[in-house]
Predict the 3D structure of the following.
Amino acid sequence: MLFELNQKEAELFSGDLLVYFIRESKDRAVPCSSKPVRRALKRVWKSGDFKGSKGQTFLFYPPVSSKKITACRVLAVGLGNVADAIDNNALREQIRSAAGTAVQQATELKVRSMMAVLPEKTGLADTEVAECLTEGLILGSYCFDKYKSTKEGEDERTAIEAFSLQVGRLNFEAASEGMNLGKSAAQAACQARDMANEPGNAWQPVQFAEFAWNVARKHKLSCEIIEKDAMQKLGMGGILGVNQGSAQPPKLVILKYEGGSKNTDPTLMLVGKGLTFDSGGISLKPGAGMQDMKYDMCGGAAVICAMQAVAQERPKGINVVALVPSTENLPASTALKPGDIISHYGGKTSEIINTDAEGRLILADALAYGIETYSPDAVIDLATLTGAVIVGLGHHRTGLMATDDNLAEQILAAGDRAGEPLWRLPLGPEYSEQIKSQVADIKNSGGRGAGTITAGAYLQEFVGDTPWAHLD
Ligand code: MN
Ligand code: ZN
């Protein structure tokens, strides 16, 4: 996919679709920088049928003889009311979502090349406008259809091949910087979506390892894979226990970025759950919806792809290390059983109450091992850990638990900025009490109450004093 920023006049663009973003306004004049477009929108604007509201679009075909606009189609997309936005984060989301609307229409029209003119007077810095617009266009054009065969005569989905941003009245340097930021973040997100959408028979621990090697080679990161025999020597009973029912060997994938000195600059450690298919194990899940359990590796995908974005951006003065423990969770005669006791990396023992509470088992080893090996200054783990978090927050927010307020604040702010909001839940001794076991140090289920928090409390057992945040 081609994605570029250019300065040449939008009216001279001769591709399939030219997009203008129009902010909502009661003004008599259409708030658009292009004179021919203002003229073309005059009637629809005056009638009130299109007033730049959020989600509104107006498509028109300039006359073939027109020398003023050479694009095949022009689409006006409503930005919504930017003057009343409560803050910059709301504005950022407005721009992303308008870009998403544009790209959806473009897909329906089977457009191959489109130009989007960067909107002015949105209240945001030029960098941010370009960043968010780029994110919206790339994230909105995402589709996963590699396993669909097209029958003859049937309509093929046309992917947009070339996007260009027209700088409009914004500063070129700033817009270019914003576009590049948006591009690396959104492309990393789409990459993670691709991994997630791969079925459980095509995306297994070995694929995580191969992908990490390729990222490392391409972007000069260091990569290490801890294999099953090494796990046995290290005593990683959590990952090994969950893996017992699977024919696929487990992997602990490690990627390292050094953007600063090991001694003086901070190290951030990321951990992502890479459970490539979760059947629940012996505590088998119900059949309905089980196909979605291929998504139980989304934390791992997010972490690996975040490393790809870090490697592209190459931030200075910080080191980042990422760990993805990866395995399947399947029932077999060899599988882990309720009542079994395992021993984690570092020696803490755990009684298995429910084999479907497996994510915490593999994360515990990765957290304990990573913290001991890399002495990070902060740790963030990402996991599709509990169904309980969806009961509590729906699909609208990510649950956040943390032992450090400053780290929690930074993550909450980053989530708001990215349009992926979080909500902090508590931790505390009363929750840790729920996972005390009669026969081992801890147990892997704290019962029905506070299911998300007791999962967090389980992980908390393995992070010691290191500032840590857990995203569920
Ligand atoms: Mn599970
Ligand atoms: Zn799981």
User: Anything to note?
Assistant: The first helix runs from residue 35 to 47. The mean pLDDT is 96. The longest strand covers residues 319-329. The two ends are 32 Å apart (CA to CA).
